What does this fold into?
Amino acid sequence: VRPDEARRTGLSCIYWFSSIGAFIVARMTRDALVLEIPDYKSQLPLIYIGLAMTVSVIMFTYSRIERKLRRDQTNLITLSVLVGGFFIFRSALNYQSYTIYWAFYVWVELFGAFITVQFWAFTNEIFHARQAKRVFAVIGGGGMLSNIAFGMFVKRYVNDIGTENLIYVIIACLTVCMLSVHNLGRQAR
It folds into this structure.
């Protein structure tokens, strides 16, 4: 990593670390909640069909809208919507409804699709091909470290804070992503 790329690379690594961390915690939370549903296995095929249709329609719609703004702006808007959605789900989980658990399942997969596509699309815009060959391995390493760190974090603290409260960890990670995107957007302009 060259000195002039260090800040962007570091911020991108933090962005990817936080993105992957949020997604890992979200999937663990989602799976723990779905396992509480009686006879969840019989409903899972229908959820996968609904999930494929939902993600396809929303990503198609998003691709039409996102072309109208800069990538950093679309990322910030999407991250804000995701944070708001997670706050809503955290409130809704107080009702312990199986319908909410399934909606959360779909939400997490939609979140994963958005966070990954947006990250790499944005990163491809702020680094040219030669830089990407050098720095993408470092940035990708942030995702690997995130797997380890958040896996250990959840294992250690889930019993203390509760499964539903892991959503606050997701929100904190997404907030870090928003700060990273904001700083990267200012720098890359």
About this structure: The two ends are 20 Å apart (CA to CA). The mean pLDDT is 91.
